[in-house]
Amino acid sequence: MAENRASAYGEGVPCWVDAQLPDVEAGKRFYGGLFGWTFEAAYGGSVWARQDGEPVAALAHKTDGRMPTVWTVYFATPDAEALADRVWAAGGQVVTAPLPVAELGTTALVTDPEGAVFGLWEPAGHPGFGRRYEPGTFAWAELYARDTEHANDFYGGLFHDALFGPDAEPDFGRAAVSDVFPAEMPPHFLVHFAVEACVAAVGSVQRLGGRVQAPPFETSYGKVAVVTDNQGASFALLERLRG
């Protein structure tokens, strides 16, 4: 497994997550209570969440109330513009063209051919997660797709080395939407955060005003529960398999 403290990410490796929320202060109370995060002001009115002083996520104010309240996963790339072009050529869509974010890097939002939204991150001053794979930090990104074979072809073409190469990292999976969600649920990425004990963390979510979408269930990579925060953003809690 990769070290918790990361300084660089190869193309196609999940390197950052953010939540678009109606109320950032309410988000700070929820996630601070759940994961013990501390917060500091960042670019554009957003805040960075830190675990043990290292950046692990961002909370941003949703500027358009018609937009969904969601967590988004960002995949690293050395060239966001070139990767956005490859997404388009492979049948995806470019939602937001590559845009510099101060001195931090360049970002874009895209979708796969089924409409699942994900971000691209070309780092400059901000390489991504300072910590991961430990309680209160990013642990996994699961794509819930209608056609998993098509998804494997699409992402395998974009991110072959990250998914199938000799240094592939175990933090991006694909599953059928109907495995966990109602069949009518749109394809989407679900960000997983590591916890020590899934059942206890679910109790904390409920006490903090969130709700349970799918109670704890077993997967090949650990025990997972799907929850929402106190504003409706979905995410998952992952208790890794021991040993």
Structure characteristics:
Glyas_Bleomycin-R_OHBP_Dase, 8-stranded mixed β-sheet, alpha/beta, lyase activity, 40% strand, 5 helices, Enzyme related to lactoylglutathione lyase, 2,3-Dihydroxybiphenyl 1,2-Dioxygenase, domain 1, 243 residues, 6-stranded mixed β-sheet
How would you describe this protein?
- Pfam families: Glyoxalase.
- Residues 13-123 form the VOC domain.
- Keywords: Lyase.
- GO terms for molecular function: lyase activity.
- It comes from Streptomyces pseudovenezuelae.
- The protein has 243 residues and is of the alpha/beta class.
- It has one domain (14-240): 2,3-Dihydroxybiphenyl 1,2-Dioxygenase, domain 1.
- It is 20% helix and 40% strand.
- The protein has 5 helices and 14 strands.
- It has helices at residues 24-35, 80-89, 148-158, 160-164, 198-207; strands at residues 14-21, 38-41, 47-51, 54-61, 70-76, 93-101, 105-111, 117-123, 138-145, 172-176, 188-194, 211-219, 222-228, 234-240.
- The protein has an 8-stranded mixed sheet with strand order 2-3-4-1-5-8-7-6, covered by helices on one side. The chain has a 6-stranded mixed sheet with strand order 10-9-11-14-13-12.
- A hairpin with a 2-residue loop joins strand 12 and strand 13 (222-228).
- It starts with 13 loop residues before the first strand and ends with a strand.
- The model is unreliable at 1-6 (pLDDT under 50).
